[in-house]
Amino acid sequence: QVQLVESGGGLVQAGGSLRLSCVASGSISEGNIMSWYRQAPGKERDLVAASVSGGTTNYADSVKGRFTIARDSTRRTVYLQMNSLKPEDTAVYYCNLVDATTRGRRESWGQGTQVTVSS
Predict the structure, then answer these.
(1) 30 pLDDT band (50/70/90 cuts)?
(2) Residues 49, 67: contact at Cβ < 8 Å?
(3) 20 to 30 Å CA-CA from 38: which of 57, 58, 63, 105?
(4) How many Å apart are CA 112 and CA 22, to the nearest integer?
């Protein structure tokens, strides 16, 4: 079983920065994707950024040039550096991991961390 623990959320003024962290524990397949999603009140959960274990990254258009996703050397911690934050970035941010097991595709979620950007 995979456990994802997020940290780093908080309250920041518009234009400020925050860095989110997500640590994955448990047995994880080498080929995996770690991502950040966010969900604002009354809205769907949307992909913010993704990091494939081979190195490829992908970003939502709304955060390109402002957010950066990266992993540490263990490949079990994923960060989301968020710069030039806007009030519309306010949401609960969730860490997500997709990998494969003998039973097939597996998807795991963290508990979420609140990010609030004041204007």
Answers:
(1) confident
(2) yes
(3) 105
(4) 10
pLDDT digits (tens, 9 = 90+) for 74-109: 889 999 999 999 999 999 999 999 999 899 999 999
Going by their DSSP bridges, the two strands 10-13 and 113-118 should be labelled as parallel
Residue 4 and residue 99 in contact, taking contact as beta carbons nearer than 8 Å: no
Asked if residue 50 lies in contact with residue 38, where contact means CB atoms within 8 angstroms, the answer is no
* 24 close to 97: Cβ distance less than 8 angstroms: yes
Q: Residue 55 has what pLDDT?
A: 86
d(CA 44, CA 57) in angstroms, rounded, equals 22
Q: What does the DSSP assignment read for 29-86? A: -SS-EEEEEEE-TTS--EEEEEEETTS-EEE-GGGTTTEEEEE-TTSSEEEEEE-S--
| Residue 45 buriedness (CB in 10 A; 0-12 / 13-18 / 19+) | middle
Percent of the chain with pLDDT over 90: 89
Residues 31-45: tens digit of each pLDDT: 999 999 999 999 999
